[in-house]
Write a structure and sequence with these properties.
This protein is α+β, with helices and mostly antiparallel strands. The protein has two domains: 2-190, Bira Bifunctional Protein, Domain 2 (BirA Bifunctional Protein, domain 2, 2-Layer Sandwich); 198-241, Roll (SH3 type barrels), CATH 2.30.30. Helices cover 25% and strands 35% of the residues. The chain has five helices and 14 strands. It has helices at residues 12-22, 72-88, 148-152, 158-174, 181-190; strands at residues 2-9, 29-36, 39-40, 46-47, 55-62, 94-97, 101-104, 107-119, 122-132, 198-202, 208-216, 222-225, 231-234, 240-241. The strands form three sheets. The protein has a seven-stranded mixed beta sheet with strand order 1-2-5-9-8-7-6, with helices on both faces. The protein has a five-stranded antiparallel beta sheet with strand order 13-12-11-10-14. Helix 2 packs across helix 4 (158-174) and helix 2 (72-88) crosses helix 5 (181-190).
């Protein structure tokens, strides 16, 4: 996979989108930023990262073999690819916090933001943004954030980690038309943060809800068991899982 490095950019996802608009005959390409000054996460959140200490990158993947109805399989599969890469680096106690955060024990160490470019009702290009806390130690006002270094007490080579991640991500993306969605979702469910545990959720109106995470639907909705064993599904805008 081609890797293009930039010294600074507002957002690697935005940079990748502009690249798609100005280039034809795209091939899988990774854009890595030394400094991402306005990184974006889910729900409009800002992704804060110290320059040169972490991995902030986006991958353009043209024509993924995924339908609009099944596009959550991209998020699930990329999340699993990151877990595989980090486990290869001897990191354990990893889970995926719905829908796309990377957790080490009870701390968030990374996140994924996938934005699909559509054309005639199909996904023409997927832009897969990844932020991974690697060597940063201090996270002001983010008590639940951590990094590979803060957990392991050792420094890491960013290029080596990126190479390992891209290898696992490429293996997943290149095998999309050979792997059943159900296989990916089944494994994703097993890796879910707080699966089968009583958890607290925040609703859009600021109220709170207690329930037990039971899995996801094929479209990526979260299945939560409420009182009287009723299972209800929620999308990203309807529910926020707290730590």
């Amino acid at each position: 996979m081609l890797i293009i490095k930039v010294s600074a950019t507002a957002s690697t996802n935005s940079f990748a989108r502009e690249w798609c608009q100005s280039n034809q005959n795209l091939s899988p390409t990774c854009f890595q930023a030394f400094d991402q000054v306005s990184g974006r996460g889910q729900r409009g959140a800002k992704w804060v990262s110290n320059a040169g200490e972490n991995l902030t990158f986006s991958v353009i993947y043209p024509n993924p073999q995924v339908s609009l109805q099944s596009q959550f399989v991209l998020s699930a599969g990329v999340g699993l690819a990151l877990l595989d890469a980090l486990r290869e680096l001897k990191f354990n106690s990893l889970t995926l916090k719905w829908p796309n955060d990377i957790m080490a024990a009870n701390f968030k160490i990374g996140g994924i933001l996938i934005e699909n470019i559509l054309n005639t009702g199909k996904i023409e290009n997927s832009i897969i943004g990844v932020g991974l806390n690697v060597n940063q130690i201090d996270f002001p006002d983010l008590p639940k954030a951590a990094s590979l270094k803060s957990i392991s007490k050792r420094d890491f080579d960013l290029e080596s980690i990126l190479k390992t991640i891209l290898e696992h991500m490429g293996k997943f993306l290149n095998g999309l038309n050979k792997t059943q969605d159900s296989e990916i979702f089944s494994r994703y469910e097993k890796e879910l943060f707080r699966l089968n545990k009583a958890s607290t959720f925040e609703l859009p109106d600021g109220n709170f809800l207690t329930g037990i995470i039971k899995g996801i639907t094929s479209s990526g909705l979260l299945r939560v068991q409420l009182e009287d064993d009723i299972i209800k599904t929620f999308d990203l805008k309807e529910l926020k899982l707290l730590f």
